[in-house]
Design brief:
27% strand; alpha/beta; disordered N terminus; 7-stranded mixed β-sheet; Rossmann fold; 211 residues
């Protein structure tokens, strides 16, 4: 194999340099987790699939014209930092903003951005207190019920933007609840890391007139 030969993560072709950065990020998370619980210890044994692949798959759904990707409740950097690592190679003009109110986790995110030399900004604020972030893409993983996420999207997503939300096996129940207050178009994609989970790709979000 040559240094330029491409490898694959979640079906996305990446270089050896990007793969090495993802592995380096994994080691950072493993090193910090005992102190601040970035991920559940029960997931460490299957870390690559549960966290790296799970996060990388969302990158397949972004529009090529996107210039700003905002990740809400970034926590240990999933999916936001994984997106930033992939974007460095595949979409260098994409700006990634990580929003994390927990100061310890925000400190970790800033350290990871520095060590991995990523073009990403960390905002240690509560989502609802931020001025609108004008995101082309808005992502969140295991953060809040869908109805609440749509309210965040209403605040921070551009009108023609796309929200990419990772949801567990009960995503249908959340969709049913959300349509009581919101109108939107949704595409449901099966998760690559957990067959019963889903990626919700949502556009044209607005408050329902009957709400």
């Amino acid at each position: 194999m040559t240094d330029q030969e491409e490898l694959s993560v979640a079906g996305i072709n990446v270089s050896r340099e990007t793969l090495a950065a993802l592995r380096g990020f994994e080691q950072l998370v493993r090193r910090w987790t005992p102190a601040i619980n970035l991920v559940s210890k029960s997931t460490l044994q299957d870390f690559w699939n549960r966290h790296i692949v799970d996060s990388a798959q969302v990158f397949s759904h972004y529009p090529p014209s996107a210039r700003q990707w905002v990740d809400l409740g970034s926590g240990g950097g999933f999916p936001g930092l994984v997106v930033a690592i992939l974007a460095r190679e595949l979409q260098p003009s994409l700006r990634v903003v990580l929003v994390e109110a927990d100061l310890r986790k925000a400190t970790f995110l800033r350290q990871a951005v520095q060590e991995l030399r990523l073009q990403a900004e960390v905002r240690s604020d509560r989502i609802e207190s931020l001025q609108p972030l004008a995101a082309d893409v808005l992502s969140a993983r295991a953060l809040a019920p869908l109805s609440e996420l749509l309210a965040f999207a209403d605040q921070h997503l551009l009108p023609d933007g796309v929200a990419i939300f990772q949801k567990g096996s009960r995503y249908n129940e959340e969709l049913v609840a959300a349509i009581k207050s919101w109108d939107f178009e949704v595409e449901v994609q099966q998760s690559l890391s957990e067959p019963s989970a889903a990626i919700l790709v949502i556009r044209k979000i607005k408050r329902a007139k009957h709400a």
